Amino acid sequence: MPQATIFKNTLKKLSQINQQHSRLLDFFSKQESLIAGSYAETSIPCGKPTCHCHRHGGHFATRLARWVNGKLRTQIIRIDDREWVAKASALYKAHKTAIKDIQKLHAREIEVLKQVIKLKIIDYE
User: Fold this and answer.
1) Strand order in the sheet with 71-76
2) Domain range holding 20?
3) Model's pTM, two decimal places?
4) Which segments within 1-125 are labelled E, that is strand?
5) What is the rounded CA–CA span in Å between residue 92 and residue 100?
6) 48: which of 18, 21, 85, 117 is 20 to 30 A away, CA to CA?
7) What's the gap between Cα 56 and its chain centre?
8) Is residue 52 situated within a structural domain?
9) pLDDT string in tens for the chain (125-residue length)
10) What is the tally of structural domains in the chain?
């Protein structure tokens, strides 16, 4: 493949990486509330020794779990708050994933830029 074609394809890769990077940054610019932690639906016993939940697996509950100062903290989510807390927690997780995606894109971008440098090198005689 001719050198000019390789160079053009390499620049095209760089352009695609920049487009992906821009889309990810646009995701961060949206005005949304986030809640740190993992939202989960579970069954838990209530603590009353005579309650049916000890025989039948517990009461349905929703929790938010997150690490604070090296310790796992959980909170029970009120019924009225379940929907928006689940959404805000999912958005938090999506933002963390987007950061990882940006890191991967950055690594790819560095590799493509190294290729550009190699393609531009000429021998001095």
Assistant:
1) 38-44, 59-68, 71-76
2) 3-120
3) 0.75
4) 38-44, 59-68, 71-76
5) 13
6) 85
7) 36
8) yes
9) 677 888 888 889 999 999 999 999 998 888 889 999 999 988 888 888 888 887 777 888 899 999 999 999 999 999 999 999 999 999 999 999 999 999 999 999 999 999 889 888 888 88
10) 1
